[in-house]
Amino acid sequence: MECCTKNNNKSSEHTEHEVAHEDNQSKHSHSGCGDHGSSEGWTDSAANFLRRFWIVTVLLIPLVLTNEMTAGLLGIGDVITYAKWIGFITATVIFGFALIFFQHASHEIRSGKYGMMTLVSLAVGSGYLFSVASTFLPALEVEFYLEISTLIWVLLFGHYLEAKSSVAAGDALEEVSKLLPSTARVFVDGEEKTVQIESLKVGDIVLVKPGEKIPADGTVSEGGASVDESLISGESKPISKKQGDKVTAGSICVDGALTITLARVGEHSTVGQIKQLIKDARATKPRSQKIADRAAGILTFVALIAAIITLLVWFLLMGESFVFGITLAITVLVIACPHALGLAIPAVTTITATLTAKNGIFIKNMAKIETIKKAGYVIFDKTGTLTKGEFGVTSVSSVTGMSEDELLRIAASLEQHSSHIIGLSIVKHAKKLSANLVEPKQFKNFAGKGVSGTIDGQEYHIGNSTLMRDIGVEDGDMARHDKQDRAETQIFISKDKKIIGVIYLADEIKKEAFDAVRKLHDMSVKVAMLTGDRKNVARSVANELKIDTYFAEVLPEDKYKYIRSLQEKGNTVIMVGDGVNDAPALTQADVGVAIGAGTDIALEAGDVILTRNNPEDIARLIFLGRAVKSKMVQNLLWALGYNVVAIPAAAGAFAAWGFFLRPEIGALLMSASTVIVVINALSLKKIKLG
């Protein structure tokens, strides 16, 4: 298949044009392996096949009327005199409408992927050429123009049904495209103008009124409104947006009006990134697809060999006429077309991509869908995934006579430059109490442990017990102030290697976490938890959620080791993290899931991206993985099983019972088998993931 080469410097609208052209090209790759292109390509293909079908329907009329049996019934036997030439002329015109099969067959042959179009072309071509030879060489005696023309007629209608079925399966890219409006209100020299969305550029100022969709990512420069981001992030409640807040393409302005300065447009916007993820995923194949591809290629040669053997056996060994033998051989070629096998997996993955995109789930590599199905362990990062990640300071304890307010002021001053959720929570609490924070000097961050800095000429450290031990705080001093009985997070403050105070914080467990763990257990999947928190805090959360195992006091850079330990015991592991801090762990896992991406879906880490921060989506993902794998297996079994029975039947294996298949009946059965595969895949749409 020829591809368009993109220039990264081109405008977004030109890129969209190239993508459309690329998708349109893909419909020409019509191999048995089943690259059927986009739904747009299939829509054009469906209309093309239907148009050809109706023309051939009309052209069949003279062929039917000149058939000996039909002419006898209608009392128009005189036309039989000219039947040979009427058949030749009409069938030649009909054969012209079948050249589309030969075009696709040439693509298969050039790419070395022999498939259904190769077989169809051989069947139609050999039947037509034999009839033409018989027309000009009377010694051959028999033409079957009507049979070959009927075969073409059935094949055209069958391909129309298949194309329509593929369109019905849906296209994830088309669904995402619906998120954006077609036009936008742009201020040009102070005047409001309506322009096509493709013409938007960074820096444009747009107006979005109530009920309208936001055309691109940007920042609110004026106004305020509630914005519905459910189509993008899955967040069901409208979010209040005011001046300075970021907004996302595809979101809906529920009330009020927003003036927005655009920051990311076209392929760089959130919707553009989602499209790119889907395109990347569509370029990947599940393992089952690779098996189907190989089987389709093998089946093509099996059918060719079976057709030759059929002709030789019936003509040379069984003593039947050459016409009889070649008719069965043609039937073998037609009925063995591996179209059902080629569509078995793509039909399922197409619907899967659409279904997941609608639910805020983006699978970067479709090969992972089969791994997801086999999951034996799901490991959650605790903070922000199973818990809300909204730490609240429950108490401050001074152990040296320093006031609690002063202790909090020092801690918050140090944590001002920290990006950790605990540090942010301490700062937030201090500001709520109107603490007078100062700028720390010689600030230093210890990843996963804490921070240090100088306040009022004194050096302080604030962090967990690991940091305290690292800087030389004595174990006895630690033991006196480490309250192991409290199921809260403890943050120590030290000066001169002595503990001077402790801040206690608590994080609430998400209610969705309880349902997530229960559903995973119902599917016989074990649950583990990773956290940098203390053992007693981890134990408390694990016991409350009924988690199978937990790993506490784990540094971010060491998380992957615990995943590897479970893998070494034979477990298929899914790791669920934030996609940034957990990148090494996500990479180590059999499937890495970046959860809570929201509108920032362009995360590098993770095989799967979930826009919502809802742990229940993991249970939904595994449920979907199992359903998808089941459909793949069903389709493969049907496609292979059909050929196991159909090829011998077409070759005349059941002749002893008087059962033979004609080419046109074989074509109907071949088309029906393909439609069955697509209908089975379409049943995935009934799955409720919400």
From TrEMBL:
Gene Ontology terms, MF aspect = ATP binding; ATP hydrolysis activity; copper ion binding; P-type divalent copper transporter activity
Residue ranges constituting the P-type ATPase A domain according to the UniProt record: 178-278
Renumbered residue ranges of the record's region Disordered? 1-39
Task: Enumerate composition-biased segments (Basic and acidic residues).
Answer: 11-26
Q: What is the annotated localization of this protein?
A: Cell membrane
Could you list the residue ranges that cross the membrane?
Answer: 53-76, 82-102, 114-138, 144-161, 295-317, 323-348, 636-659, 665-684
Which of UniProt's keywords are assigned here? Answer: ATP-binding, Cell membrane, Ion transport, Magnesium, Membrane, Metal-binding, Nucleotide-binding, Phosphoprotein, Translocase, Transmembrane, Transmembrane helix, Transport
The principal localisation class reads membrane
Has keyword Amino-acid biosynthesis?
no
Q: Where is the composition biased (Polar residues)?
A: 1-10
- Which PANTHER family does this chain map to? ATP7, ISOFORM B (PTHR43520), CATION-TRANSPORTING P-TYPE ATPASE-RELATED (PTHR43520:SF5)
Report the family membership: Belongs to the cation transport ATPase (P-type) (TC 3.A.3) family. Type IB subfamily.
Q: What is this protein called?
A: Copper-translocating P-type ATPase
